[in-house]
Amino acid sequence: MQHEVTLLVRRECHACATAREDISRICAELDVPWHTTDVDADPELRAEYGDRVPVILIDGREHGFWAVQEQRLRAALRK
Fold first, then answer.
1. Is residue 54 reached through a cis peptide bond, with omega within 30 degrees of 0 on the bond before it?
2. Coil, helix or strand at residue 7
3. For residue 58, what is the DSSP state?
4. Lesser CB count within 10 Å: N end or C end of the chain?
5. For the segment 30-56, what is each residue's pLDDT rounded down to a tens digit?
6. What string of DSSP letters covers 9-38?
7. Rounded Cα distance, 66 and 55, in Å
8. How far apart are CA 75 and CA 34, in angstroms?
9. Domains in the chain, please, with CATH?
10. 48 three-class SS
């Protein structure tokens, strides 16, 4: 099964920049497509996730927030 990762971010967020670097590296190594979405561009996303960015979604389901747990993410993407 091919997974897809979405990273929910906002501008001027240091933790988001760090998560973006980690996600980019891990997804490239595992050949998993990924993209970012700015939570502030969508009122519903901002209301749901705004206090917890960065948020990692795998196939549209929340996987984690605030920091990338590399081993956990790799395990989930290998399933």
1. yes
2. strand
3. E
4. N
5. 999 999 999 999 999 999 998 999 999
6. E-TT-HHHHHHHHHHHHHHHHHT--EEEEE
7. 6
8. 16
9. 5-78 (3.40.30.10)
10. helix
User: What tokens were used for 38?
Assistant: 């700015």
Neighbours of 39 (CB within 10 A): 24
Closest by CA position to 60, among listed 2, 1, 21, 3: 3
Q: What is the pTM of this model?
A: 0.94
- Assess contact for 20 and 33: CB atoms under 8 A: no
Closest Cα partner for 22 from 75, 65, 62, 68? 68
Structure tokens at 23: 């996600």
Q: Tell me if 29 sits within 8 A of 23, measured CB to CB.
A: no
Task: Convert the pLDDT of each residue in 13-23 to its tens digit.
Answer: 999 999 999 99
Q: Which residues contact 60 (CB under 8 A, 6 or more apart)?
A: 6
